[in-house]
What we know:
By secondary structure, this protein is an all-alpha fold. The chain folds into 2 domains: 6-52, no CATH class; 64-297, Orthogonal Bundle (MetI-like fold), CATH 1.10.3720.10. It has 14 helices and no strands. It has helices spanning 3-9, 11-31, 59-66, 68-100, 105-116, 123-133, 140-147, 162-187, 191-199, 204-226, 236-242, 248-251, 254-264, 268-297.
Amino acid sequence: MTGKKGKWKNVDFWLYVMVLPAFILVLIYNYIPLFGWAIAFQRYNPALGMFGSPFVGLDNFRMLFANPMFVQVIYNTVYIATAKIILMFFTPLIIAILLNEILRDWYKRTLQTAIYLPHFISWVILGGMFINILHPGDGIVNQILGWFNIGPIFFLGDASVFPHVIIWTDVWRSFGMGTIIYMAAISSIDPGLYEAASLDGAKRFRRMWHITIPGLVPIMVLQAILALGNVLNAGFDQILNMYSAAVYSTGDILDTFIFRRGLVGGQFAMATAAGIFRSGVSLVLISTSYFFAYKFAKYRIF
């Protein structure tokens, strides 16, 4: 349609109007703050402001990479995030396949609700719950371990144990939402294939192995590729609510390092430099993951 009257009747025009509030929010909270990256190249002084602080070039980046703690933080981030990615790939897949084999719909739906409900609970609440549950003194887990003469174990205070607690508690909270994706993919598999396999004498395990799993391969490939972009996303809100100074050596990740150095320690320039490094690496990983997602799974955003 052309002309003023046509513009107001154009469906696409109103779709753009609907997107406008979201675009404004992204512009305000995601793009305008990028001007603050200039702090990373300054000896920033809050009293002088961003425009009055002296320019120091890449000195903050040199100090950042010379800091041995920063190397450990990168290792912690990659280790925790990679473990979460691997477990969050296989756990929802296995649970979805098992749920699909449940014949009673009411029982299946009840289990589905129970396993994805924790995803909607904030880590502020869950963190407090796990602190009480895993307490070395009167926590229920250590009380149970005490029945077998084990412990007490300082789950949230032992640097060697803390990463495992972080990994498994996050998997417990989040795997239920992952099962929804796989359950949806399973529902799209032709039921006639299962009926034909049953007529040929294939038992339940055979049907799972030869029909269900091959039918899930495309979504499995897509999930694995897209997960690559989360290698530096180890769970800021979770760790911030559960860690302490005793476990910084194994539990401190890039996000919490930036938070402590910047907002808590007042080292704004170094924290900004660390944030730029994280954003740059994440951009490369996300771009790579979407490239492979399009190449191998024909997935595209636009």
